[in-house]
Fold:
Amino acid sequence: MIAANVVRWRRYGVGGQELRPGTKSYRGGSKVHVIGSRPGEHEHLTTVGRGRHTGTFITLDMATRHLHTFRASLIRSPEVLRRDAGSSVGRVWGGRAEAEEVAARLERLAAEGRRTRWEGEPHPTPCRCHECLTLSPG
Structure:
């Protein structure tokens, strides 16, 4: 299966001038498991992870641009495996090698989505969006 983390801060609002931590459903930095995507679409992925408010596992579709550090991961959590088995979305990978290949593709797609979402708009000051945090020293 593929695991990823939710971005710590994301740009929001008119011209991307506001910053919000994580997403409405997941805390920033939370680990989520990608259980699939709709056929032919990778802009939105179906994820399983612990919810922001309750701490229990939730399953939801979310934008790929809100995730980073995609990686192939062995899943042992019974709840994640149960939700994966009951999911109606199509899995887009078979074994570990294919999962690593898809994870690399999703990482590139997520970075492209974050870059083009607010293209031409200045970053807020100070900016803590994912791109600015990964480019800052230390």
